Write a sequence for this structure.
């Protein structure tokens, strides 16, 4: 339509526009609305996810698989027991499984190289290479690995959309169903499902433990050289510590917890030498998948009975007891409320006695 | 009991008998409440207002509500709680002595001393249960903490390897 100089023509055009514009607007709106789902789906599949999980359980599963199957690298902060520690993680996954490098960025330098279950830790200040296995251990952001029954003991619900390390993420809330464990809050990156933040909180909303990425890259290819240890060619004079491999899983000691809080299972039992202890100490780890409790069983020694009950040490609460008429001393600690520690400690019995 | 408290407030007790009763008032919640109520009545009669009403029960209720110690928790929280406790204890002592000063100047000194020690005992019992006790420390808890940290989902267990070595030279951890 060309402009016209006559006033009548102008009026005609203006009237025509007045009639047409609302219709155009409606049409444009319909087109946009219709086009939106297709456009979103395209954008998502380009970034990774076909469809986002609809419920909390779906997000928990996605966080679990993303930690092992995604390619990512970043820097995270871990706060617990009054400490704050920063680490860099580089993680790739291929047909042979997981390859991961963890480097401490503060405190003593450490490089932890993990290939699936095998762990090699380089400690340049101690000139020690420590060999270990992952066993039941978990590393952020893989806190939810091997969790199938988490909703039996926690009620899961979706929270708001938050933002961590520059990424939008879905908050997932896990509230304990009883008083034997603490609650958790996770935030999963919207497109990959990678856990960007994990917080353990008490019923009084005190933060007990906190993991958070401050910077992270997700999905971009990673040069495999970045996964190699920096100290691999400087190992002269270093010692290799295989103690962790040796202390693993002796025969069952016969000790078990009679009234284990719901959902907790024994995940590992080791015997280890400890300073000031004549006999080896049995350590059992119990976990409900999110929180873990260590139970130490040792032959009594003079001085053991000087600190019984709940003892506060290093940001943790220990529950210490001796067993009546038996020469054993028990210590229990873990990321659970005090009543949990006490119930586990008090119901520890030996099958052999 | 109520008559006794009334008599105590009127200064009709011998010092020896008074201290026993005062101790009981310190222990017995009902007696404390009576004590406070009588003083409140006295205050109102003298036109001093009712601002102390229920202050003791409120303080003790607050103390009872104090968070139980959870594991793990930051070290400094214990210190904060201890400080809160002493502040609360001091507040209750202050509140009690204000009331006494107003109504029973004669028995003020002895009651304050008793109340003071009761409050301190209370506080120290609670703090004892949640903080490292000051006595001998034959057991090295750090090593157990390290053993537990090995199973935490972090680098914590690896970070403190060197310090574990210095703590535990006899553990025979390093070799070959």
């Amino acid at each position: 339509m060309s402009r016209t100089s006559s006033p009548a023509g102008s009026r005609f055009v203006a009237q025509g526009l007045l009639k047409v514009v609302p219709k155009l607007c409606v049409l444009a709106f319909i087109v946009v609305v219709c086009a939106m789902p297709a456009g979103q789906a395209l954008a998502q599949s380009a970034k990774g996810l076909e469809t986002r999980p609809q419920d909390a359980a779906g997000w928990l599963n996605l966080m679990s698989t993303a930690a092992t199957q995604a390619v990512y690298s970043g820097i995270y902060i871990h706060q617990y027991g009054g400490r704050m520690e920063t680490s860099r993680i580089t993680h790739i996954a291929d047909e042979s499984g997981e390859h991961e490098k963890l480097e401490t960025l503060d405190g003593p330098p450490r490089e932890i190289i993990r290939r699936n279950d095998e762990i090699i830790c380089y400690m340049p200040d101690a000139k020690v290479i420590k060999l270990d296995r992952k066993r039941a251990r978990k590393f952020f952001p893989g806190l939810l690995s091997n969790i199938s029954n988490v909703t039996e003991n926690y009620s899961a619900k979706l929270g708001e959309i938050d933002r961590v390390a520059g990424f939008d993420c879905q908050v997932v809330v896990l509230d304990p169903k009883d008083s034997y464990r603490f609650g958790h809050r996770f935030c999963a990156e919207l497109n990959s499902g990678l856990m960007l933040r994990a917080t353990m909180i008490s019923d009084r909303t005190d933060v007990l433990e906190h993991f958070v990425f401050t910077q992270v890259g997700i999905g971009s290819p990673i040069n495999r050289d970045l996964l190699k240890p920096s100290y691999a060619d400087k190992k002269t004079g270093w010692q290799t510590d295989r103690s962790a491999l040796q202390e693993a899983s002796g025969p069952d000691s016969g000790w078990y917890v009679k009234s284990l809080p719901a959902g907790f299972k024994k995940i590992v039992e080791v015997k280890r030498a400890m300073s000031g202890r004549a006999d080896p100490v049995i350590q059992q780890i119990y976990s409900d998948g999110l929180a873990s409790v260590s139970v130490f069983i040792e032959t009594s020694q003079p001085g053991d009975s000087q600190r019984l009950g709940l003892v506060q040490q290093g940001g943790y609460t220990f529950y210490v007891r001796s067993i009546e008429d038996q020469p054993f001393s028990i210590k229990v600690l873990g990321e659970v409320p005090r009543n949990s520690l006490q119930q586990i400690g008090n119901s520890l019995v030996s099958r052999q006695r | 009991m109520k008559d006794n408290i009334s008599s105590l407030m009127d200064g009709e007790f011998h010092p020896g008998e008074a201290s026993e009763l005062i101790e009981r008032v310190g222990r017995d919640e009902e007696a404390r409440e009576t004590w406070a109520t009588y003083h409140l009545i006295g205050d109102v009669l003298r036109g001093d207002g009712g601002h102390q009403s229920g202050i003791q029960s409120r303080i003790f209720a607050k103390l009872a509500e104090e968070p139980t110690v959870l594991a793990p928790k930051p070290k400094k929280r214990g210190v904060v709680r201890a400080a809160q406790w002493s502040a609360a204890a001091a507040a209750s002592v202050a509140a009690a002595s204000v009331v006494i000063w107003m109504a029973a100047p004669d028995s003020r000194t002895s009651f304050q001393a008793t109340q003071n020690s009761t409050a301190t005992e209370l506080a120290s019992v609670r703090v004892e249960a949640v903080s490292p006790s000051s006595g001998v420390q034959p057991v090295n808890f750090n090593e157990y903490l390290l053993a537990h940290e090995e199973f935490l989902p972090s680098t914590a267990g690896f970070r403190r390897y060197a310090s574990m070595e210095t703590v535990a030279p006899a553990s025979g951890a390093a070799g070959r």
Q: What stands out?
A: Chain B touches chain A through 52 residues (CB under 8 Å).
